[in-house]
Design brief:
Rossmann fold, 7-stranded parallel beta sheet, alpha/beta, globular
């Protein structure tokens, strides 16, 4: 069955759109007829993603966005409304792992420290980007979506929002917060026909996970824990985003879409 382009005419705003899952989601949304606003702080990479989309015949613009700034969100929404008049889809994909940005190869099984070794500064940075960024994005689009009769909010959590591990508690806490915030949004705004769902990736090959997967021992442990026997690729997650953005998921809200190769099944 060929159902054609699944986002024809929809305006979609994607944070973290310059690389990894965000960039692939932007490409796939554009290929399905979406009008894209690709937002990130990695300006050169983000502009390259937009150029690639446009060269393929898609519609996209790039905007610099600090997801922790309420003023920046307000400005972005104003600019989007001026350009397109609406926001149909918000994909909150921007996030950080909490590892040292200078780390090229991860030395331990998990990328972050134990609780006692986690500084308040590191904790706050992870929470600000991974949680406050999702909150501000959601808060910013709610009035727009309500006025237009509804919309879809997609929040990238993680399997780390479902289970614990031997380190990086701040990251786990942030992704758990995203999971429950998503459900609260779904319940509060179902009456507005605004759907809110979270996606929980397992181990996916992205720039964020590259230091871990560059360590053969870490990669082996992760692959062995994944029943399907391979790392995910950004497209695996982007296709889940496409489903939740499309009208095919019109009766889906407050749920967790786990895309992890079976890891959390055992």
């Amino acid at each position: 069955m060929n159902i054609g382009k699944r986002l024809e005419g929809k305006v979609a705003l994607i944070t973290g759109g310059a690389s990894g899952i965000g960039a692939e989601t932007a490409r796939i949304f554009a290929a399905h007829g979406g009008k894209l606003i690709v937002a990130d702080v990695q300006d050169e990479l983000g502009k390259n993603v937009v150029l690639e989309i446009m060269e393929a015949g898609g519609q996209a613009i790039y905007k610099h966005l600090d997801v922790t700034s309420e003023d920046a969100w307000a400005q972005l929404i104003d600019e989007t409304l001026e350009l397109h008049g609406n926001v149909d889809v918000l994909a909150n994909i921007a996030g950080i792992s909490g590892r040292d940005p200078a780390m090229k190869v991860q030395k331990t099984i998990t990328p972050g420290p134990l609780i006692e070794d986690t500084s308040l500064e590191a904790w706050n940075k992870i929470m600000n980007i991974n949680v406050t960024g999702v909150y501000l994005g959601t808060k910013s689009v709610l009035p727009v979506m309500r006025d237009s009769g509804g919309g879809s909010i997609i929040n990238i959590s993680s399997i780390c929002g479902l289970v614990g591990s031997f380190g990086n508690a701040a990251y786990h806490a942030s992704k758990g917060a995203v999971r429950i915030f998503t459900k609260a949004t779904a319940v509060q705004h179902a009456k507005d026909n605004i759907r809110s769902n979270s996606i929980h990736p397992g181990f996916v090959d992205t720039p964020m996970t590259a230091p871990g997967h560059s360590n053969n021992e870490v990669a082996k442990v992760r692959i062995e824990a994944t029943p399907l026997g391979r790392f995910g690729v950004p497209g695996d997650i982007a296709m889940g985003c496409l489903y939740l953005a499309s009208d095919e998921s019109s009766w889906v809200t407050g749920t967790e879409l786990v895309i992890d190769g079976g890891l959390t099944a055992h």
